[in-house]
Every structure is written in C-alpha cells, then in structure tokens.
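Dear Dr. V.,

Thank you for agreeing to look over these. As mentioned in my earlier message, I'm a first-year student in the group and I'm still getting used to reading structure tokens, so any feedback on how I've presented them would be very welcome. I ran two proteins. I've put each sequence directly above its structure. The first is here:
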Amino acid sequence: MVALALCAIMVVSAFVSFGPLVAEKDVGLEEKMNAAETSATTAVSPREVSLTMSNMFEIYVKDQNGSSMGRWSDTMGLNGWWPLRQSNYGEWMARGTYPFVLCYDPYSTQTSPDLDMGNSITSWYRLYVDAKNITEIGTDIGKDPLFVPVMGNPSQAGGWVNLSWYSTYLETWELTSIRAGTHYANSYYGVPTAGTTPRASADDGYWHELQGKMSFTRAAAKKFLGLPGTGNLKTEYNASKATIESNWLDNWLDEGGGIYDIYTAYDYSDDIRVLVTKLDPDWYGRDPETLHLRIYSISWGNEVLLMRYMEAANVLKNWQGWPDDWYLNVTVGPSMGKVVSRAVIGYHMYAVKDSLNTIGAWALEASHIDWAGNTQIHQGYQSPYNAYDPDQTATTHVSWAPLTVKYGLPVSYIVPPLQWNLTAGEKIVIKLPSESKSIIGYKPVRSTSDTLGAAKMAELATNSYWGELVMGNGYPSSGPTNLKNYYNAVTKTITLAGPVSFPLNRNPAFPTILDTGAPMFVLDVAKVSSYQLAIVGESAPYDLNAGQEYTLRVTAKNATGATVTDWNGTSSLSSTDSSAVFGQVTHNWVVGDAGDYETTVAFNAEGSWSVSATDASFSMDVGGSIDVTVSGGPQPTYGLLRVTTNPAVPTMISIDGVWASPWGLNWVKLDPGTYTLSFSDVPGFVTPADVEVTIVAGETTNYMATFVPCGSLRVITSPAVPSTIYVNGIPRNDWGFWVDVPAGTYTVSFGAVANYNTPAPQTVTVTSGGYAEVTGVFTSNPGAPGPDPATYGLLRVTTNPAVPSMIYINGVWASPWGLNWVKLAPGTYTLTFSDVPGFVTPADVEVTIVAGETTNYMATFVPCGSLRVITSPAVPSTIYVNGIPRNDWGFWVDVPAGTYTVSFGAVANYNTPAPQTVTVTSGGYAEVTGVFTSNPGAPGPDPATYGLLRVTTNPAVPSMIYINGVWASPWGLNWVKLAPGTYTLTFSDVPGFITPAPMSVTIGGGGAVTERVVNFGSTGSLRVITSPAVPSTIYVDGIARNDWGMWADVPPATYVVSFGDVPGYVTPSPQTVTVTPGGYTEVTGVFVPG
C-alpha cells in the first residue's frame, strides 16, 4: 500500500504541473483524468474502456501566446498547417467556419486504385477515452509499458510510470522560432537552437510536436531509463541524459519503422528530428524517490506511432482516426495501466448517404487508421488488411460518397472496415449536436468530375443544404442490435455498453471481407427539425366538438424555427383518438407546398386527445403534436377481428365455413355476433380445432391459432425389404417411410418378409419439432415364411403433381406424398388428403383392396388461381369476396378456380367503388382494383390508432414478409399502418440466402415510424456424394439429412459429414468441411467393398 500511495501522489502532482496545457473550455477534463489516475490499484479489476464522441464539426485555432504552450484556444478557426496540406497534398478546406469541412483524395499517395472513389468529404469530432485496468501494459517482469522504451534490464520489476503528454502540429513560424531559440520549446523544454529542427521551407503541414511531462519511480527509472537507481536519481539522469535521448529516439525510430511501422498509415516510416528531455524544475528538492522529466519531440509520424501503442494496449483497437489537439495521460503499474485521452479526430467522419434512404448523412464506423493500400517492402509490421488492398486485389465495394463520379458504383477500398464486438466493460457514447445547431449536409448525387479545386468547392457549396443532425440508418439497422435501439432522441445520445455483438456486414460481391464496419453509425442531416400543427380558425388550447370536421395545418420548421419552403419529405398524421378521421393521413411534400399544407380532421369520441405529425425518414427525431379536448361522439356499429397464426403458417382461415384469407386476418370489420373459425392443414403442423369467437361493437377481438409442430418419424428396413410397417397396429406403408406426426409415443412393428426373421416391435417417442428414427433389422433366414398373399392386396397412391399431402386411410394417417404398395387386408377403405397451400384438396375417395391384386389411385391436386385485390389509392377499406369480409387495404390470395364478386367497405372522405365480378382460372392470375375517388366529408368507419412499419431487405430479395404470420408483401414493406402493439416479423426462404430469424417489433401510437433492415446472408453450397452410389444415410453434424447423396444450400460454417452403414461395404470415416458464403464444397464418401 505504501507504493500505491506514493504513485497516487506522484500522478496528481505531475499532471497538475502540466495542467496549463488543458484548454479553459475543458476544465473538467483535468479533474476527470486526475480522478481516473488516483484510483490506481495493484489489484487487477475488470477492464473498462469508454469512448465518448462529441463536438462534431469543430476545430480550434492554436494559441499564439507562448505562455499557452501551443495548446488550442477557445476560438474556432483554421490553423497555419491547413493551407500547406492543400498545396502539398490536395486537402481542400470546403468550409473554414463552423461546421468545418475538408474535401480530399482519400487514398494513400502510394496507392493506384483500380476504381478510384474520387474524393471524400470529411469533418472532425472530439474523442474522449477513459480506459482502466488495462492488463496489456505493465512494468513487471514480462510486461511491456509500450509507450516508453526499455533501456535497462528487462528482467526486473519496473515500478510506476506516469505520462502527461500533449501533441498537435507545428505552424511554419514555430519552426523558425525554435531555430532562433525564442519558442517555448527552447525555454521550457530545452530544445537547442537550430540543431535538427526542420527549417520553415521544409514545412508540409505535418510536422508534429509532442510535449509534456513524465515521472518514473526509482524502479521504473532503472528499468526503463537504464539508470543505476542506487543514488540520487537527478544526478544519475544528468549523467545519462544524452544516452537516454539517443536511445529513446532510436527505439521509437526502430519501432515506428519495424514492429509498429507506421508506413501503411502515414506513407512514411516514423521520422523523428528532435527528441529532448530535461529535469522538471517544478520538482527540484522534492520527491527524491521519483524522477520527474519534461519531454519534447518534433517528428513526421509520432502521432501514428502513439496510435499504434493505443492499439497494442487494446484501448483503440477497432476505432481509429487521426488525432490532433491530443491530451494523453498514461499511468502504468506492475500489472496494468490506465489511459485517459482527449483528442480532435480527423479523416474519420465522412459524408455519405443514409443506408436506406437517399438522404445526406455523415458516417462513423469501426475502421483502422491504415490505408487499405500498403507496400510489400515494409515487412516489420505485417498489415492484416491485404485483402482490401487496391494494388494487390480486385476487391471493391459500392461508394456512397456524394458528389463523386463513382457515387453508387464499385470503388477500391480506402481504409479497412472492422468488426467491433463490445465486450463487458467496453462502452461507446456518441453525442449529436443539439437540435438548435444547424449542420451542413451534401446532396447524395453523382458528379461529372472529381478534380479538386475551386470548381469542386463551388460544386459542394451549390449542392449543400442545412439541417439538424439526427439518427439515421447505419449498420446494423435491424434486429436486436439495430443501432436505433441505443439512441435517446431527447438527449440526442447513442449509448452502447458491452457486451454487444454485431453481425458481420459482409461485402455481397466479396463475401469473405466486410462491406462496412460494424458498428457503422449513420447520422442524417434532416432539413426539417419539427412539424408545427394548428387547427385553422381555432385558438389553443383547443376545445372541439365531436363529429365536426376541422381544418388542420401542418408546417415544416428547421432548427432555427424558420419554415422550410422546399421540403420534399413524407410525413404522417395520427391521433390518440382511434376514431379520428383525417382527410389525408400521409403527405408527400413538394416545393409547391411552400412549407405547409392543410387537411381535415374529425374527432368522433369525447376526451382529451393529441394529434401528431411524424416524419417518415426521421421518425425518432422529427415530429410535432397538439392537444385537443373533444366533447361527445358517435359509437361504432361493428367490431374488429384480428387473427394470427403461431408460428406464421399459410393456413386458410375460414369464417363460418367460408374462406377468408391465409396466414391471418388484419382487423376485419364484422357485425356483432358469434362466428366459428376453422383452419386448413399445413404440412408439418397439427391443425388447431375449430373455435368460436364473439364480436362486440367498438371492440377488437384477437385470436391466435397455435400450430404445434409435428415431430418427424422415420422408419427404415435394413436391408430394404417390402415389409408392411405398422404404427400403433395400423399399416402405414411398405419398405419404409418418413412422416410428420403429432408428438407422442408410438409402437412400430413390422410385417413378415419371406426368408427373413421379423424384428420385434419397438416403442419410440416423438417430440414436437424433434426427429425419431426406427430401424427394423431383418436377419437372413432362408425358408422363413412371408405374408400369405391370400390375406392382402397392395395399395399404390400417387399425388399429381407430387405434393406433400398427408394420406389418411380410414381417417388414420399413413404417409405423405404417396403410398408405395402398402399391404392391406381385402376390403373397402376411405382415402382422405391433407391440404397443400396453392392447391384444391381432392375429395375423399373409396378404394377396394382385392387379395393378390394391386389397387392404384392418383389424387389430383388442381392448382388454385391467384386473386389480387388492390385499393387505389391505398385505403383501409374492408374487402369482401362473395359478400364475406376477407381483409383490409388489399390482399393477394390463392383461391379455387371460379367466379367471384369483390366489393369494398366504406372509407371516410372517399366514394366507395361499385362491386366487381372476376373469374379466376386454375393456375391463372386475376386482379381487381377498387378506385376510391375523393369526396371530402363522406362518412367512413372509425379507424384504429396506428403506427407505421417500414421493412427493407438487404440485399433486396423477394422474400415474403409476414406480420404475425400473415403474409404482407415480398421485397419490403412501405410504411404499413399497424395498431400499436408488438408484432412478430417472419420471412420466407430465398434460394442462396440464410433466412433471418423471426424479429419482434413494437409499433407505437401517434403515427410513429418503426424501421427495420433485414439482412439475408449468403449461403454456401454443400454437396455430398457416395462413391459408388449406395443408400447410405448422410449425416451432417450428427443429424440424418438424406440417403444416397445430397446437395443443399447451408449457412457458412464448419460441418462434420458422416455416413450410415451399407451392407457389404466399409463405412468411410467422417469428414470435416468448411462452407464459405457463396462458395461450393464437395464431400465424397468412398465405400470400399468389404
């Protein structure tokens, strides 16, 4: 504990003495760092790393007052090195005032990309790092402090090291001043005049200064500075000063050009021109057990070398940019260390478009400071990112850099994206600028030129706009790690605390590498900050009459409160009064609106309600509302029926024996009364029993039909023989079968086969969703009797076309798809068939079995036709077919061939279209459109309160999207209105892709928009062959998949393929194979006779 107390005192004192480098605008930073450092402890506590990003688009001017020691001041502006970077490297300042913007060629100067992105628009942000209990650094034996060299005996304990450093870039006048001896580098740090300080003529805008203080306990001075450590530390230091400086410089040069070679980030290995140290006079005569020093260095590249150390310390491993105005405090003890840092980060936040919408945005993603392009000659530091190298590979990804020639087209990578799965103790906080701050955005459009210069700067200015920075759609934008789930719109803060694991955002064209980092935060520039609502002709607070129609005005406002006259977004209206009727719910804004539009609203229930406007693209940030009080109101004359299936299955739901709609019913309007619901069969599930529901006027009746998964029962005869297989004493099929059955316990027995001993019956338990296999082993017994042909006939049943209908014999299930010559006692039997989606189920049929004969029957499944009903415009009309309500808004359903009458329910403010008669043919398609013409004031049913659901597929694929088991639409959903509540989204399979897991979404009231992106990962192809072709059961990961062979699309992973025994052959050994996204893997099981 003595050493601990000593360290704590030393750290605080060292930092306070260097305190003047902390800018006045950040007085809290010193307290934060001191508190972090004084908490040092020798016990190894859990690692904590917190990154906080704020102060976006800000940069400040370096203080010209020598007493400020070169720190940045409180005044925003451009420093003297930026014009040099423009002239030397083409880094153009697009904006020299807040918000500051830079436009530059983002590729390494050593890279010749195959497909040049053109340029990148970028800005700055401030990054705070608070890292505790970092065991990757230490001073003990076998530990590396990273930030300082080891000049003494490494096989000794190292005590404590404390660093309090600041770094930025030098202006040209400073180089001249240092050479003249008039700079604080001379007076405060002892840098000699002239010497190796670069001349002003050599300034390219990247000369970097590192300055600060550091302290070493006696043990640390011995181990890291090579001092004897037996006498006066100051005396020993003075005797070794030149050696320490020389060795330190050499060490950093060696590491900056070797194991931590900065070349792949800097296009230059570390080049240090000045590195001096001196005793800190503030500590003369005090603390003899600790050596207190000052340090100053001028280099090309030390900032990147320090970033390498931050990476090696596992502090900034997956989140890297270019640091400036960098305060870096490091405490290193025997077993661990602490890092507290604050820096302005450049070249990391860049302009882009929203991943789901064509909206200007800014992005921050997990990425590395290295260029994707790197060189083969710098082998000391082996870059792990060669797969992204534009010079060595043909890999590309799509660029969404606005105002570039290749916007929306493939380009070569710039820097490698990374996946950062936050572990326990890791935290990311991103603070967006306040709502009152206007931020510049750039129109996501393509340019005709990438040439940087005055013309490009003018083009950027012409194609820019102003707005509020809001939460956009980055990656992931769906699922449990949807970044929007971590956003607080009130505080405008994103907070992620580990553990959080993100799915890989694979490049669809090159699936072995990443397309973007994960996470990737996209922050949209919303031209509109709020919507202002008002009831025309009325004064707030609003006291309104029920049933009366009012005019509602909606005005688009920006961050300053001004009306946005050129807004072209989409907004939606909603009310907490579920019976409120709007003349227009969704409005697509056009320039002709001049910033506002009017519609009608009528409230039909008394009470206190709110009316809200929500932006479709910025639902979490942009909206507005008013409160109203309503007196009186009519009552609805109907009720709503909502039916879902669990899980989502394509069962046809019938109401009182009349088909309505498959998958589910979406709040169908029905007269009050009692109705019977029934459900068609779905292969693989137990069909629910019929159920009665009661409809009450003005209420919603919900019913969930639960389809319990069957289990899979497979029965095999070994060797394959024509034994009749009985389950629970009933013949099911011959030879063998594989069937879905309700969960339960079954007795499987086998009929006799000539020349074989009959196996004993077996009892097997089938679980819901499980798999059970029974093998009847027939041992050879020449002369053993088989069944008496006089006691049975054979029944052969086929389906046309072949469909997985379960065939029942006298009401008892037998086998799906067909029956293979089942032995049955002579007599008459009734065959029935389970439903198959998309087909008309055949009627029951009687067949007669005659002893010694084969009876054949083909069950014909006639294809249904497809009937699609559309409302134009899309309105919540109840759709009736033959007078029966089927669904609202529209539907697309398979129905038996025939003639149908389609009619439509009333919708407020529209004329109801006349009924239409349509003929649906087998396998054909028929479409009916109900055209609703505007008629303000026309009565309609009372709609329910709703929110909006937006779903996109990534990449775009024709997966059918189901909401609570009810089919909705393929490819995606465009702002579907749903009643508030929680829904389950499921997705149909798409060949070649991994089907996403079901997803739960919560829909809020007030027209709030819920958005989800559904990622379909690429599958790989796994083919298994038996050589020669034999009826071996093929197992993948221990599960039987098929016999003889298989070829299937499977998720990328490592699999174990094994083979079942085949009589007369030696079974091959299992094989382990890896299937890659989009790849092809083949396994051959070689069966050797034996």
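The second protein is here, in the same arrangement:
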Amino acid sequence: MERVGEEETGTSETREYWAVPLLKLLGYEPILQVKAEVIDGQTFAISHRAEEIASSEDINPSPPLHVIGCKLSLEQRSPSGRPRLSAHGLLQEYLNRTEHLWGIVTNGFQWRLLRDCSLMTRLTFVEFDLEQIFNNENFAEFGLFYRLFHRTRLPDGIDDVDSCLLEFYHQEALQQGGRVRDRLRDGVEEALKLLGSGFLQHPQNEELREAVMRGELSEQDYYRQLLLMIYRLLFLMVAESRNLLLDGEDIDKARIYTEYYSINRLRALAERKSYRREGFQDIWQGLRVTFSLFDESWRGQLLGLSPLNGDLFGSKSLETLDSYAIDNHDLLLALRHLSLYENRGQLRRVNYAALDVEELGSVYESLLDFTPKIVTYEGIYVFKLVTGSDRKTTGSYYTPPELVGQLIKSALEPVIAEKLAEVSRSSSSASILLANPQKGKNKDNLGTNKDNLGSETLPPLSLQQQQEAALLSIKVCDPACGSGHFLLAAARRIGKELARIRTGEVHPSPEPLSQAVRDVIQHCIYGVDYNPLSVDLCKVALWIEGFCKGYPLNFLDHRIKCGNSLVGVLDISVLKEGIPDGAFKAVTGDEKKWATAFKKRNKEERKNIESHQLSLFDNLEISLEKYAQDWQALGKIPENNTDDVKLKKEQYLSRHSDKNEGWWRDYSACNLWTAAFFMPLTENNLQLLPTTEALHRLLEGNKTTTSVVKAANQLAQEKRFFHWCLEFPEVFEEGGFSCVLGNPPWERIKLQEKEFFASKDEAIATAKNKAARTKLIKQLAHTNPTLLQAFEEAKHDADAQGKFIRESARFLLTSKGDINTYAVFAETVRKLINSDGQVGVIIPTGIATDATYQNFFGDLIQQENLSSLYDFENREKLFSAVDSRMKFSLLGISGKATQNTNFSFFLTQAKQIEDKNRVFQLSPQDIKLMNPNTLTCPVFRTKADAELTKKIYQRVPVLENEKADAELRGSLGDYPHQATGHNPWGISFMAMFHMSNDSHLFKSEAGEGLVPLYEAKMFHQFDHRWASYDDQGNTHDLKLEEKMECDRTVQPRYWVDKIEVENKLAGKWDKEWLIGFRDICRSTDERTFISSILPKTAISNKAPLLISRESNINLLSCFYAYLNSICFDFVVRQKMGGTSLNFFIVKQLPVIPPDWYTEEDIEFISSRVLELVYTAYDMKPFAEDMGYSGEPFIWDEDRRAILRAELDAKFAKLYGLTRDELRYILDPADVYGEDFPSETFRVLKNNEMRKYGEYRTQRLVLAAWDMMGY
C-alpha cells in the first residue's frame, strides 16, 4: 500500500493485499459484488458481501462490506465525482434504504462499523484507525477491534438482523444510557448541594450569609447562580473532551492550558481522594481565572483561546459567587460527583465527549423541578433541594431520540424539501426569463441580490447561494423548549442539509457540519419556556452544539426567551376590540362586587369608543412592519467575534426596551390587555385595574394613568406574559414559523394542592383525603398565614389562567371542560405556523379521540390541516415515568390543505412507523364519512382494518347523522347515502336509573310493587340471564342447567318501584320488553358491543336503552340481531378509544337501515332471533309481539352457536363483504399469517380454543357462508 502512487486510488492493492485477507482472518469469506444494486432508482456499488448466501432474490442477503482504496477518504467523494457518494455515505445510505442493519466500510487504514440510522443527523459509527494502532503498538485496542468486527458479531443475513450480537450490544447500550442518565442526575444533584452549602459555610462568606438572611439574595437567585456555575463546568468539560478549545498546532500553549487551567486537570484532582484537604480555597481562585480566559478580556488570547463571552462566560454572569470563597474540599468533591458515576458497583468516568447534548440536557432539566431551600442547623447554613413524594425522574423530560427523529422526518424535512424546491422552480423560471427577457418585464427579478435600498442590483446569486439562503430562512420554534432537545435536532438536520450543499457530500465531515449547525442556530432556531432555568439550560445546550473553534458563543437572547407561551397576545389585532368583558369574571380571591362593577364599566367604555370610531386604532400593522424590519436587521449582524456579539446584544436591548418608544407602547398595551385577566379584582386594586379606555388612550398616544401601565408591566414580568407578535415580529410579519416542534406539558390548568404543598408542608401534602387536606389548609390562618397567602395567590393565578384561556378568544376550540395544557398548546402551535408551515408535537391521543376536543380535531379535518397522527401505547416505556397505559401521539399539522393523512395506532416502538401494514392513509372525506357528527378520529390497528372499515362505511350509513342534508351532500361527495334519513330507525337513547344519583330509589329487598333493577353485568348477547346476584351481594354466571329452566329468572341486587319505571318510559316506549346494551366495554374484550332484549323492568344507567320508533317488531328484531353480529362488532372495535361506549360513538356506527331488508331477510333473521331470545317465560311479551304463542325454546348451546353463525354470515353478506374479508374479520392471522400486527377477536378465539379445542365461531360462520351459497 505504501507503493501506491499519489495519483492512484490503490483500490485493487488495498482489497487484494490487505483488506480481504484481514477480513478472512476475522471469519469472513468476502465475495466481490460485480453488479451494483439498484434501490428506488439509485445505484449502490457496494464492493463486497460477507460471504456467498444462496437466495431466491438476485441480491445476496449477507452483510455489506465496502472496501475502497487506501488513498481515498471515507468521508469525501472521489475528485472524479464517481461514485456519487463518499464511501461512508454510500454504505450509510444503503443501510438506511434496505433491511440491513449493520455493515463495514474501510480504506484499509480506517475501519468503520455502521448501523442503519435513517433518523440521525450526524455521522454515527465506530471507527478503528489500524495505522495508528500499529504505529503506537496499541495491541489492547486491536484486540477490541478483533472482538467487535469479527464475523460472529454481525447477522448471518436479513432474517436475524434484530438478534445478532451487535444489535444486542446496541440495545443494551441504549438501556444502559437511561441508567447512566439517572446516575448523572444524582451526581449533579449532589454537586449542587455541596457547592451551595460550601459557599454558605465558608468562614470568609459572612456577607453572603447575611444577604440570604435579610432576603437580599433569594434562594431561587442563589440556585440560579449555582446552576450557571455548573453549566460553565459542563460546557468546558464537553469542549475539552471533544478538543474544541485549543489550537492543536501550538503545542506549548495547549500544554500550558491543559496542565494549569483545564477542567480536566481539576477532574483528575477530584478523582484522587488524597488531594481533597480542607482549609484551602486556591482552587476556586484558579477556576475563576479559567473562566476569565473565555470572557472578552485579553487573557485567553495569550493561550490561543478565542473568547466565548455571551451570557455563559460574561464577566458579570457569576458576580455573586465571584465575590466569595469555597473550600478546596467542597469544590473538588462537587467536581468528583460531576466527573464520576457508579455503575454496577464500580466508579466510572463520565465520557462527556460521547454524551449527546440532549441527554445532558434531560439530566439537568430534571433538577429544575426542585425547590431550593437554605436552612440552618445549630448555626450552620445548609443548601437543600426539596421535592415532593412524586418527584419526577429524568425520564419525565427525556424524549426518546427515535420519537424526535420521527417528528423531524414528518414535520421539518417537508419544509426543507419545499424550500429547496422553491429555489429549483425559481432558477428554472429565471432561466426562462434569461432566454426570453420580454416575458419577465413585469415580474420580480429572480435569483438576484439587491442591497437593502433596492437601488442597485448586485450579481445574481449562484444556485448554491440561493439554496443556502433558502435553508437559513427556515424558522423553527419549540414553544415549551425545556433543555432544547427538539431545537438541537432541528439545528442538526437543517445544518446537515446546509453542509451537504456547501460540500457536495451526502454525509459531510464534522468540521463543515459544525459550522453549518452554528449558522443554523444563529439564523433559524427559536424557543420559549416558562422556567427561566430551562431557558438558561437550552442556551447552554445550543452553545455546546453550535460551538466552533475560533468563534464566540452565539447570541441567543433574542431567540431563546422566557415566557408563558399560553398567556399573552398572539395576534395584535385583538387590541382593536378592547379588553373582553370576560376578563372581569370573578375567580378565587376576587371580590364579586368589584368584578361586576368593572365588567359593567368596561362594557360601557367599549361602547362609548365604538360609537365614535370603527376600531381602537388603525396603524398597528405599520408599526409591526417597522419592528419586523428592526429585528431582521438585527439578525443580519454577524457573530464572527466578540465585538459582533456585543454589538448585537446592545442593538437588541435598545430595541427590546423603553428606549424603543413605539415598541414599548405596544408592549405595554399588550400587557394592559392581558393583565386585566390576572390582576385580582379587589378594592386594593381599584386604581390599578386596566380597562378598555386605558388601553385606548395608550394606543392613541394620549395620557394614560402611569400607575395602571406600571402595574400591568410589573404583573407581566411576574407572570411572564409572552406576546408572540412583539417578541418575534420578523417571524409574524412573514405569517409565522416554518416549523413548530415539541413535547409540551401534559397537565391540567388547575392548582394541584398536593403538588403545591409537597415542598412546603408535608402534613398537608400527605393528608389521607381532600377533606382532611382542606381542614389543614384552613388551619394555616393561625399556624402559617404566610404559606396560606402563598397558596391563595397560587390558586388565584391558576384560576386566572383558566379564565384567560376560556375568555380571551384565543382558544376557541380547546377551552371546554377541564382544560389540559396539551390541548391549548395544540391550538397555539397551529396558529404559530405560516401558510406553508408544519407542526410536529407529542401530545396525548385524546386530542383526536376525546369528545372534549372534537371541535379542535374536527376543525383540523374540515380545513384539511391534519398531516399525520401516529398513536403510541406506552407499554414499552418510551417515557419511563409515564403510566404504561398512557396513549400519546406524534401529531402533524400542516398550514396548507393536505389531501391524505398518515395514521397509525397502537404502536409501541418508533420503528413500527416504517411497517407498511401499520400505517394507512385517510382523507378528510374518509373521516367525515366514518365520524360525521364529531369528526373525531377512528382507531385502526392496521391498513387492512382501515380499508375494510372504510368499505363498510361507503356502503352502510351511520345510525344517526346529526348534520343537515345539504351540508352532508356537499361534504360526503361519492357517498350521499349517508345523508338520507338522519335516523332511519328512529332511535333515541335513555339512561334509566343512575346508580349514584338515583340510589335513594333503590330497595335492597323485593316487595309488592317493586321490580328488579337490571345491571349491565347481568346480561350478554342474546342472553338476558347471563349473571345473577346471591344473598351476599356477589354475582355468578348462570350455569347451563339453570338456563335450561324456562322459569328461571335472575336475582338483582336492588329493586325499584314499578311506578318509577312507568314514569320513565311514559310516552316513549309502550312494549313490555326493552333493548339495552352495555356501556362499559373494551375493544380487546371477547365481544365489545353487547346488547340484549330484556324484560320491562328498571335498568341501570350503565345499560342504556335503545328506544325505536319502528312499529314492525319482526323488522326491529333485525336491528337487534345486527347489533350482536360479529361484523358489526368488528367496526365497533375500531371506534373504541377507551372503555365507555358513549352515545356519540353509537350514533356514528354503520347500521343497515330498515328499507334494506327484504321480506325473505326479515323472515330469515327474525325466526332465529325469536329462538335465541325466547328462552324463558319472562320474555313471553316479546315472543307474542313477534306473533309467536308457543312455549320458550330450551337452551341448547350447540343449536344456538349454529343460529348465531348463520346470522353472522347473513349480515356479512348484507354488508357486501367477500369470504376473505369475513375470514379477516374472524381472524386476520388466517389471511395474513401469525405475525400480522392486527387482531380482532383474539380473546374469543383463545377462549374457544381452550373450551372446544378449535376456534368454533370461525368454523361455523364460514360453514354457514358456504352453505348459504354466498
């Protein structure tokens, strides 16, 4: 290989004399691939396979091995331009596009092990540099190479990719990563407590202790200083571990920093217990010098270090702690906790170079839930971190990267693709114009570069420059950004695309990729969070990710902000309408007298203003445009050195303060408008409460009471109002963000008493019930009035936020019922994007299936804005701290209409989204077809389930359609049958006796004039005697011999006066029997829709009644039989998202209408219904209404199974199903195989297999189908 010339690639020599022989020693039998593989129109010239494996396909299924010449780079394309990708990029792309998981790429010197990582945005691999290993005689590392690259570690072929040793190692590493994160969190928690107590206890820090004691330094501010110190250490540990700080060419300067100033030096000291002597504080003084090397001073330049400056290393950022001392012992012990963690009984060094920034972020973010406390024990100050009994773990915050990756793929990548497509279209148009200039005389100049004044046209931008500009114009936001997990992923993905364009490489090398990510963070990334500590943490994460040698830290204050994303003005035009009267509704702590007075006053003021002019002001849009221009100019300031960053910060502060008169006026106006919802309506605030007149005067430039404005602005700071249009005017001038990503909080907007008192009063927090807790809270008036006041203020704040959400008109679609933050965040993010934008968020699936949010989801459907919804069950603990039964979704929303939406349900792993059987498409038309009343989302396990259910709905109308005929015919297109006869069976629902509210009517013993109270558990399909109570109040199923007794009746738990029953049914139902169904059921039960004809008696509310206007009882028996058919049950299971069969679900089920049944159909069905129902004398009234006067039919299990099978086959035919479709309904595995991801009647099948040794229902139904000649 050394003899290969400089102009040669050395491919043949590398393969023949080195790589292939070494591979054979590693257990491979490499086979040269003569023919390139073609996938999706792209060629992949992978050089070798692990060995020859016979296959029915043309492609060898053994693992791919790609060997190139020793003179070629793994990361860069050949200068000739062929092949189209670098060697690394070629193999990575191949793995991403095929079922192969693992592969090897080498140029003889560097050997890389690659895994499929289609959702990753960075180069991810294990590399061994054999040249360096041999030169350094590092045989231990070669031994590791041998063990890891040996043939036995890779899969044999495609079929065992998930079970090979490498995949086992990979999955084990992922699980261990979660454990390491928890250990790191514990270490950081200990470090914070040690530092906090260490500063407080040092003898020289009397002034610090006095400041704390007098309240001049709050516990929260002290905690923030400690966190900032930890963030500095974290940043430097990561930067040093990744060799990002030092100039490698100046060895002397690098040595001086490493030996005397580096954090790594202190880590080494901390790990040596013998060094941690007490009584000295010189290490802290030295650490302060290290920090100063990275501010804007000259010190760092002496060592070749570029100043980082910014908020993290600014000279005043840590000014509180800078003034005090800490003992070496405490500081080094804290560093030890940051540097080491315990794993399986051994201490291991934290490898900060390998840890993802978002993993570190989740560790630190989990600490932000603590409440800092400074207490004294016998005169000694101790810093504590207090939390409640339900402390959140790191897993609460850590969104698995595979979920983040899916949202990047579904929400951000379409934006990237569209931006680049616009450039291509623009370039094509420009080419046409250049060829025919006359065509473009009245068109905008395309592909040109104008200065800000537009007075001079600069040379046209190249295609690459246009593509770069397009990518850097993308605006991505996370409105609840936390530690910045989604923002980091977005920055990497856009950065990767930017680096691709700049380098021409599909997988760019680290240096251009880092620069691109830094540029993206500077231009594209926005975030908001309510917690200021989270905002700090997000900035640190972005600084680490975007750090490049020789550059200062990015300025982020204008993009990463602290505020309440849900409270404030989103659209500034709302000010035109004045303050809503609903702002003055009284909540906890308000005085109703003053609430009523101010509501009346506000209404009168608005009327008075409106009588003189059409709106409060007319020039708001112009001022917003001016702000947008200012912010755009701010964004153009480079960040190449500390002077640039300093200028940018000064410019931002001058624009974002009272120095900018116009902006400050509008900011104060937004605060007035929002403060009206939050300011306590009490006599003490009479002179401070903002009303519409005060808002109007301020906007008109007239004199406004200074105290009112000042109070509103102060309240805005306290409550962290966030006015989107004023904080990011450059974004909203263009209609909104390009993409919004995130995992917003899932919690009720209501003060949770146990959580509030968890860190404040343990007795109240752990009270055995609410009554006991309420009693203890009342006692606070005497025992701790300060805490009581804090509780009442917190309760007022929570109620006021609820009032804002309900009354501000900002949340028209999600403000009903108990408000949950995930729902109002969903409505917010939808409004944050522009007309071409995309949303990708993780929220509970209830947003799509719960009736509470049907207005929001229905509007998404009506406007055709739903792009995707992937539903997960947390059974495999994707979120470790969340209940395994919790269902959440990756929700995609588009700013423009989309014709088809991707859906998938019951997922447990992100990779299942790639399973074509699990993912299906529904159009808005399809959802209107299946759920016309609520427009909520049907739930399907597979594409086959969806297609079959859709086919049924295309043929069969719903039970009751609540929409008007004209509206329906317009929206249902090809299925007008859904609009004919809104309720053809004339069905209404009745819940007769509520088990709680009507319990006073229930008697525990039988008596004259009393009738049994039937409960849902007492009946089943075609069986009104399923279960009975005994004298002890326990239920038991009736035995076969008991059911064969025609005079046997069931025993209820309660009885009710017959007159009460008659009163309930008067004017609604005149038969001596009833049709009921079970309200409580699940899609995974043996059967889901369980209906029965019952004697006329009292019925529990959990067994709702179906009251029909149909007078033909034989025809009505067809309706009843249909409800118990297996085909109908299949559809019901697709519509069940919970355990309650609510009326709105039943109304939207497909039900064969009366006029579909022929006389032959009615005779066939009703005769079988009669035999199945009339098995006891108490059902004689039903038999007589059907024209039958004989004796009851003796219960015969085998005969009944045949009758039911015949009914099931009959209804399948009426549905228009094929035999294979019926087979699928009975058991999908019978059609698609045992590994098919759907199930229909698994429990029924399993029960029958145990009882009969066969799936009897399946055999009988298919036999009936065949017998009837269908």
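From my reading of the second output: Residues 572-721 form one domain. The longest strand covers residues 833-844. Does that match how you would interpret it?

Kind regards,
E.
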